[in-house]
Amino acid sequence: MKNRTHKACVVFCLLIYSCNNNTRLPGNINTRASLPDSIQLTVSGLKVLTTFINRKAGTTSVLYGNPLALREAAGLNKEVVGGEIFTLVTWKQQPDTHWFGAQIPGDFLSAEQLKTDSAGQAVVLNYRRYEGNRFVPDSDTLYKSGRIRFILAQRPSVMP
Amino acid sequence: MKVIIKKKIYRVISFLVLVVVIVQFIQPRFENPRVTGDITAPAEVKTILKRACFDCHSNETKLVWFDRISPVSWMVAKDIRDGRNAFNFSAWNNLPAAQQKDKFWEIVNHALSGVMPLKEYTMMHPSAKLSESDLAVLKNYVSGMAYTETYDSSKATEESAQFNQWQKGNGIQFIPVASNGVAYDPDYKNWQAISTTDAFSNGTMRVIFGNAVAIRAIKEKNTRHWPDGTVLAKVQWDQLADHEGNIHTGKFNQIEYMVKDEKKYASTEGWGWARFKTPDLVPDDKDAMFATKCINCHRPVKDLDNVFTFPIEQ
Fold first, then answer.
1. Does B154 touch chain A (CB under 8 A)?
2. Chain A residues with CB inside 8 Å of B202's CB?
3. Residue of B nearest to A21 (CA)
């Protein structure tokens, strides 16, 4: 009987300990801003090119690029060449609960990818937009060309 | 038997009383040096500062009788010394304007997170406790110090000049190393970004990078105690507003590293702290108190292994 009570006691203590331990773990991963798996692939292997904030929309973005895209953005290529990859990730901003006076990425909004392909003499610009986890087909060519121009106009941030 | 125990207790008590009496002769010197640059702030703000901060962070310390009883007085003296060293409202106006603003944002954040005033102080001096309305007054006041972003052609020129210089340069010729052994690591550019910050408080923006060890820790949700080998790099630029009011990265200001090595950096919370300023990457380690300043500022996140960043999984 005594033995059983002891065992029950130990199990009970362990239970309380494990519950306590879990609740004490601060959830400091920014899950709202974390990228869906399919979007992670569009960023994987790319480097940070620049970051910017849209005050009116309350969004923050990071533009990534492969080495060719980085050269292009720095103005080292005379013109767009094939093989450039840009990914622009945009988040809604949220107040930083660790620091009054700062904002950090909140909900993930979109990822836009621009890939350039050589087709003979010409270069083809492929633009794709993802919202949340899904691909959004853009039929509005004016919108698309505007976004392409915008992405190509970005200059790398100074990173010595 | 009972008589012997009673006698023993009596002896112990008299010994303790004697010790307490003797230590009263060892008293720290309390001085209030001259006020040289008293803080200028609206009356409602100043009243709060005087009530909650001035005892340790000014030359207008008001001691109550129990503050003078040793050994309490020794702790009080240490708190006052540390407090005045951290910042002193009686010499506040002698600080450059930008530093006053940065410091005040830090002060408000320490008040909001409950780091300050110290618990052991408010326990003995309950009137120093900050109420919700006190905090609202402080937040409102500091918000007025936020950076206002407008298009500034001189800032744009400054960024362009720095950008051209950076593009022309052949990279750095040697690796700068801070006095605590933390070296500037150019590889951060190949690491993943784990977050960004829009610090509208002082008009800067940052990207925080994590090395492979840090990324693995995020994937495994092991960021409460970042593992040894973790390196976090935070790059900071000025905010540069364009004509449409969008904010881009302006002048590069600095890169800061936190390098995790529990043994090597045991005296600085397990982290090696370093800051390299300007594109010349000059180590910011002239001040022997550098690491202490880092740790002090990071106190609101002491329970999160001293890391402010909420990492993004990507």
1. no
2. 101
3. B224
CA distances from B68 to B75, B120, B193 (A): 10, 15, 52
List of residues 6+ apart from B30 with CB closer than 8 A: B61, B63, B68, B73, B77, B80
CA distance A117 to A123: 5
Nearest chain B residue to A157 by CA: give it. Answer: B249
Are both B65 and B157 inside the same structural domain?
A: no
B198 at interface of A, judged by CB pairs closer than 8 A: yes
Residues of chain A with C-beta less than 8 angstroms from the C-beta of B159: 158
- Total domain count, chain A: 1
B63: nearest Cα among B77, B82, B49: B77
ipTM score of complex: 0.87
Q: Which two tokens stand for residue A87?
A: 């990914």
Q: Do B197 and A43 touch (CB under 8 A)?
A: no
Asked if B167 and B298 sit in the same domain, the reply is: yes
Q: What is the pLDDT of residues A31-71, one digit of tens each?
A: 999 998 888 888 889 999 999 999 999 999 999 999 999 99
Chain B residues closer than 8 Å to A109 by CB: none
Element (DSSP H or E) covering residue B206: strand B204-210
Cis status of the peptide bond prior to B117, with omega within 30 of 0 = yes
pLDDT in tens, A133-156: 788 887 788 899 999 999 999 999
Higher pLDDT, B89 or B286: B89
Q: For a pLDDT cut of 90, what percent of chain A falls above it?
A: 61
Residue B207 shares a structural domain with residue B247: yes
β-pairing, B204-210 with B231-241? antiparallel
**Domain, as residue range, for A78:** 37-153
Are residues B135 and B208 both part of a single domain? no
Q: Out of A40, A96, A159, whose CB is closest to B235?
A: A159
pLDDT for position A24: 44
